[in-house]
């Protein structure tokens, strides 16, 4: 057999060289597509449910959120361990599945149980949500947004409502984690003395705000051959509209407006951290890769989009990358161009 193979190779040199070249080309193409990463990802199959409830202490988080979730997830098919963390305002419950379990199937199982748990947790304490399909090694690209002309609140708003939305549309990107800046809030600062003087409670004011801040439909009216859609527009569009919400009406029909018993203003949400660069406050963001993706390819797409975003940033804003996974996994032998 070997003699025949050698004889064929000698007599058909051109054919052998062509076949060899084809196999070398196929090998080179596949080598360039190999998902080379900085370190091997040995993360087990796990699904995490996160619940945010800023008003609760760790004890209440454990009692009202974490414990009910653990009870319901206990005994889920394929699960071998359940871990949980209860912190001030945050509950995290992770279900570890057997190796080889399809992560999407595992998420479906957990999600079905969470729908049951959602009915057991008081609505004001939040609702459990599944964490993104990523691992601890999913951080592939990090950058900061800086500006000498914009406030931390404006930087954070632009990051959350513009850049993050665009970056999430990139294939292979599952999440954008943002740190720094201040979250913009419409804050209602009630005067306690005026509240008591008018015999009102905070819950009553909250109910009035909810009742006033929504749009509704009213069907339609026929006008000749046309149908005119009826809309009731009540959603707030600014501070002045919030101030004009009637919280009580006297017997004479005179309304008591919210602006008469409270200050309404735009302010920052309570912060638990800050991001700085060279002593200056910035907004930082981390691009998280979808589980199982090729980090080199995903980072390449992110860099391409970032170069486009650089040209459309508001005047004064700068986007500065400081971590790129592809720089770690890049491989370029000496003399290779």
Structure description:
- There is one protein chain.
- With about 325 residues, the protein is of the alpha+beta class.
- It folds into three domains: about 45-130, Alpha-Beta Plaits, CATH 3.30.70.1430; about 140-185 and about 270-330, 2-Layer Sandwich (Alpha-Beta Plaits); about 190-265, Multidrug efflux transporter AcrB TolC docking domain, DN and DC subdomains (2-Layer Sandwich).
- The protein has helices at about 1-10, 15-30, 60-75, 105-120, 150-170, 190-195, 200-210, 240-245, 295-310, 325-330; strands at about 45-50, 80-85, 90-95, 130, 140-145, 175-180, 185-190, 215-225, 225-230, 245-250, 255, 260-270, 275, 280, 285-290, 315-325.
- The strands form six sheets. Strands 2-3-1-4 form a four-stranded antiparallel beta sheet.
- Residues about 330-335 have low confidence and may be disordered.
- It comes from Leptospira vanthielii serovar Holland str. Waz Holland = ATCC 700522.
- This is RND transporter, Hydrophobe/Amphiphile Efflux-1 (HAE1)/Heavy Metal Efflux (HME) family, permease protein.
- It holds the Pfam family ACR_tran.
- One of its GO terms (molecular function) is xenobiotic transmembrane transporter activity.
- CATH level 3 topology of the largest domain: Alpha-Beta Plaits
Overall pLDDT: 87
Q: Count of DSSP helices? A: 10
CATH superfamily caption of the largest domain: Multidrug efflux transporter AcrB pore domain like
Organism: Leptospira vanthielii serovar Holland str. Waz Holland = ATCC 700522
GO molecular function, one term: xenobiotic transmembrane transporter activity
Protein name: RND transporter, Hydrophobe/Amphiphile Efflux-1 (HAE1)/Heavy Metal Efflux (HME) family, permease protein
InterPro entries: AcrB_DN_DC_subdom, Acrflvin-R
């Amino acid at each position: 057999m070997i003699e025949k193979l050698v004889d064929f190779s000698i007599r058909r040199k051109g054919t052998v060289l062509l076949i060899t070249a084809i196999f070398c080309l196929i090998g080179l193409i596949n080598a360039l597509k190999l998902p080379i990463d900085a370190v091997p990802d040995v993360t087990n199959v796990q699904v995490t449910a996160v619940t945010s409830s800023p008003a609760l202490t760790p004890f209440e988080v454990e009692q009202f959120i974490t414990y009910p979730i653990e009870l319901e997830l206990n005994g889920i098919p394929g699960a071998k361990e359940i871990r949980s963390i209860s912190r001030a305002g945050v509950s995290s419950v992770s279900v570890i599945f057997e190796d080889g379990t399809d992560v999407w199937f595992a998420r479906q199982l957990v999600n079905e149980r969470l729908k049951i748990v959602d009915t057991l947790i008081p609505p004001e304490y939040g609702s459990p949500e599944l964490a993104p399909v990523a691992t601890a090694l999913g951080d592939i690209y990090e950058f900061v947004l800086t500006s000498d002309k914009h406030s931390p609140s404006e930087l954070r708003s632009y990051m959350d409502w513009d850049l993050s939305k665009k970056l999430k549309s990139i294939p292979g990107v599952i999440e954008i984690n943002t740190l720094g800046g201040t979250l913009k809030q419409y804050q209602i600062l009630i005067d306690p003395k005026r509240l008591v003087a008018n015999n009102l409670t905070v819950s009553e004011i909250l109910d009035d705000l909810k009742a006033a801040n929504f749009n509704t439909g009213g069907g339609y009216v026929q006008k000749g051959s046309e149908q005119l859609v009826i809309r009731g527009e009540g959603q707030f569009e600014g501070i002045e509209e919030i101030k004009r919400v009637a919280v009580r009406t006297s017997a004479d029909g005179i309304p008591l407006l919210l602006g008469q018993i409270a200050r309404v203003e735009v302010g920052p949400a309570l912060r638990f951290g800050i991001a700085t660069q060279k002593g200056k406050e910035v907004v930082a963001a981390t691009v998280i890769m979808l589980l199982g993706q090729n980090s080199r390819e995903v980072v390449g797409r992110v860099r391409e989009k970032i170069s486009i975003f650089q040209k459309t940033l508001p005047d004064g804003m700068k986007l500065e990358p400081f971590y790129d996974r592809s720089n770690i996994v890049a491989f370029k032998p000496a003399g290779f161009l």
